[in-house]
Amino acid sequence: MNTSLSTPHLIIGCGYLGQRVAALWHQAGHTVHALTRSEARADEFRRQGWYPVLGDLTQPQSLPTFTHIDTLLLAVGLDRRAGHSQREVYVDGLAHLIEHCPVAPRRVVSVSSTSVYGQDAGEWIDEDSATEPQAENGQVCLAAERLLQDRWPHAQIVRSAGIYGPGRLIARVEQLRTGTPLSGRPDAWLNLIHVDDLATAVLAVADRAAVGSTWLAVDNRPLTRREFYQAITRRVGAPEPHFTEGDTPTGGGLNKRCSNRRLREDLGWAPRYPTIEEGLAQVLEQPAPAPASHPSRPAVMPPRPERS
């Protein structure tokens, strides 16, 4: 594709999170463009008042040349049904995008993951903690971060905890109601953030953060997996959760606990849903909005607390 395009606000990955940021930008009066490989999704964006850009990060020939981007949001998710690996999408796809931007965007915000931290003994971590991921998804996310920082050093990184929100808990609720045993350690830590709070964190970073900075986006209180599922059962009247693993700690596999202190204190960000208790009240009462689903993904998705 030989076309060129000027896009003041461009979103790459306009899905569960990206659509919320697009709506906030649009409400603030910004012109919003969003990349999609789907004609149906393009029509959906137009109905929202956004401008679709047809293209696929994994197919560089499909991408236009972006001649001017004021603010770029990278919020790419992995659509496993498309048949591409996480590395092909997150790292190779990013390289293709950079090649199609002859001039660097004025501001870049990239949503990464707390999986880049390999700490696994329940310790507290922050933005300055070592990034030595053991799992492949964390290694891929870190590789994407490093590529971005190498090519665009002014880019800002938002390392998100596990994202939950409308439509992301229905499968877990049904599992708990039927009394199906849960796998994994009940005493392992979870770090979570409501999708609406992640959207406002992205805007805070885009508007007020120093260039080249890194931020942890997580709610105010980590909780154990047992606490997480107990909170759901209290809300829906399900039986006490049962785990297949023993309840006695075995010295490892406890994950880590992430701190949002810097985001709160330096940028003045405050989550609307500071803990899972407030978040569940909203999630379980509000159905998933139609735009949050991807045409090639199921409309009802499980939560992703294990992502962190």
Fold topology:
Blueprint: E1 4-12, H1 18-27, E2 32-36, H2 39-48, E3 51-54, E4 65-74, H3 86-99, E5 107-113, E6 121-125, H4 136-151, E7 156-160, E8 162-164, H5 170-177, E9 189-190, E10 192-194, H6 195-208, E11 214-217, E12 223-224, H7 225-236, E13 255-258, H8 261-267, H9 276-283
Parallel strand pairs: 1-2, 1-4, 2-3, 4-5, 5-7, 6-13, 7-11, 8-10
Antiparallel strand pairs: 9-12
Walkthrough of the structure:
With 308 residues, this protein is of the alpha/beta class. A seven-stranded parallel beta sheet has the order 3-2-1-4-5-7-11, sandwiched between helices. Strands 6-13 form a two-stranded parallel ribbon. It has nine helices and 13 strands. It has a single domain, classed as NAD(P)-binding Rossmann-like Domain (Rossmann fold, 3-Layer(aba) Sandwich). Helix 3 (86-99) packs parallel to helix 4 (136-151) and helix 7 runs parallel beside helix 9 (276-283). It has helices at 18-27, 39-48, 86-99, 136-151, 170-177, 195-208, 225-236, 261-267, 276-283; strands at residues 4-12, 32-36, 51-54, 65-74, 107-113, 121-125, 156-160, 162-164, 189-190, 192-194, 214-217, 223-224, 255-258. Helix 1 (18-27) links the parallel strand 1 (4-12) and strand 2. The longest helix is centred in the middle third of the chain and has 16 residues, at 136-151. The chain is globular, with a radius of gyration of 19 Å.
What structural keywords apply?
308 residues; alpha/beta; Rossmann fold; seven-stranded parallel sheet; two-stranded parallel ribbon; 13 strands; globular
